[in-house]
Write a structure and sequence with these properties.
The longest helix is centred in the C-terminal third of the chain and has 23 residues. The protein has 2 domains: 207 residues, Phosphorylase Kinase, domain 1 (2-Layer Sandwich), CATH 3.30.200.20; 181 residues, Aminoglycoside 3'-phosphotransferase, Chain: A, domain 2. Helix 11 runs antiparallel to helix 12 and helix 12 runs antiparallel to helix 13. It is globular, with a radius of gyration of 22 Å. Strand 2 and strand 3 form a beta hairpin. With 400 residues, the protein is α+β, with helices and mostly antiparallel strands. The N terminus is likely disordered. It is 45% helix and 20% strand. The strands form 3 sheets. The protein has a 9-stranded antiparallel beta sheet with strand order 1-4-2-3-5-6-7-10-9, with helices on both faces. The chain has a 4-stranded mixed beta sheet with strand order 8-15-14-11. A 3-stranded antiparallel beta sheet has the order 12-13-16.
């Protein structure tokens, strides 16, 4: 037992955060071990590129060719740099490299409880399924998305697991939106159907259908081309014109600002108050919002629909311009890696050149992003803390 505890303690932090959600031990720790547990029911995983720098977890219960397919599945939808990394690793994996070595790139998970639960929901046996996942080196709680396939690497589902209260709420909201669109589709949009929702080991688990194999990448230059599908999304649900003072969206931001832990409430509430003082009487069209309208959350299908996923930030009633202005700001901060003040200045300049309504929506988006990042910072995400601080500073300096 002492050796197992020592092995668990030696698990790299980024990997341990994922393991605590996917293989919980019931005490806040995990059952992912560096040494093989004394159990007949064990899953083996290859950590790529290594335990010192974990980025992917691939099942050794699948053959090398299948593990390579797991890395390459939907790889053409990713950005150039991420696509190149996966392609390089997949080439080595297909050849059976690197070889599994304890202490270097091999870990064990005792028990198959999550696989058993997922298999039951999918109507198959646990030994017919394997799971893989990416690992991100972030400081906040993990929110893994598991790629569930058969042993030949053919997709069966994407499975999201949420353990913390905030992530559970976001995943529950996403499931609600997916179920609503399954019942009332939006014309021209392919929104993955939810396959199941279950409570498991203190976590919320949601299974979502896999994307078609013929999806094509939406590029950053497709912003104008994609706009008609955004209009179809908004047009598929009720819309109403509300003043910001009467907006449930702004009221929700205020509630979120007040609930933040220190040091965020004062700056967050001040930012919301400033927007209401300056623009509270202005009428703004409200409707459904995706919440992360970015090229990496969408793809073209073979029948020229737009596939759209990741609905964790979606809202039924929000200013209709938020999604449109999310695209350039997300690209500048996430892909181009521009500092927040520079990205905000570029956004404000483009919006002001269009019209006053766009300029207002730009400010509302920056406010929304500031509150979102502050919430993520409260969960321990250090990069979000920096972004939130920069955004609140930006919001305190109005464009000339």
């Amino acid at each position: 037992m002492q050796d197992r505890r020592a092995a668990a303690a030696a698990t790299p932090p980024a990997l341990a955060r994922v393991a605590a959600v996917v293989w919980p031990d019931g005490t806040g720790g995990h059952r992912l071990a560096l040494d093989r547990p004394d159990s007949a029911d064990v899953e083996r995983y290859l950590v790529l590129p290594s335990l010192r720098q974990p980025r992917f977890l691939l099942p050794l219960d699948a053959p090398p060719a299948a593990r390579a397919r797991l890395l390459l599945r939907y790889n053409h939808l990713r950005t150039d740099s991420r696509r190149a990394v996966r392609a390089t690793l997949a080439g080595a994996v297909r050849l059976g490299l690197p070889r599994p070595r304890p202490g270097r790139n091999l870990v064990y998970a005792e028990g198959r409880s999550l696989l058993r639960a997922v298999a039951a929901e999918l109507g198959t046996r646990p030994d017919e399924l394997v799971i893989s996942t990416g690992i991100r080196a972030r400081t906040g709680p993990a929110r893994p998305t598991l790629n569930v396939t058969d042993r030949r690497g053919r997709p069966r589902a994407f499975v999201k697991v949420a353990g913390s209260p905030g992530q559970r709420a976001a995943l529950d909201r996403e499931h609600g939106f997916l179920a609503d669109f399954a019942a009332r589709p939006a014309p021209g949009l392919l929104i993955p159907r939810p396959l199941f929702r279950l409570e498991w080991e203190g976590a919320l688990v949601v299974g979502v259908e896999a994307l078609p194999g013929d999806v094509r990448r939406v590029r950053t230059g497709h912003r104008d081309r994609v706009r008609p599908w955004l209009e179809r999304l908004v047009g598929s649900r009720p819309r109403q014109e509300l003043t910001l003072a009467d907006s449930p969206w702004l009221a929700g931001l205020r509630a979120s600002a007040t609930a933040l832990p220190e040091p965020w409430p004062a700056r967050a509430v001040e930012a919301v108050d400033r927007v209401e003082r300056q623009h509270g009487g202005q009428a703004v069209e409200h409707g459904v919002r995706h919440g992360d309208w970015s090229p990496w959350n969408m793809a073209w299908t073979g029948d020229d629909r737009l596939a759209l996923w990741d609905w964790e930030f979606a809202e039924q009633v929000a200013p209709c311009g938020l999604d449109e202005w999310n695209w350039p700001f997300a690209y500048d901060t996430s892909v181009r890696r521009l500092p927040v003040p520079q990205a905000a200045a570029r956004l404000r300049s483009e919006a002001a050149a269009r019209d006053a309504g766009s300029a207002l929506c730009c400010e509302l988006l920056l406010l929304d992003m500031a509150l979102r990042r502050a919430g993520q910072a409260a969960s321990g995400n250090s990069s979000s803390a920096r972004h939130a601080g920069d955004l609140f500073t930006v919001l305190g300096h109005q464009p000339s």
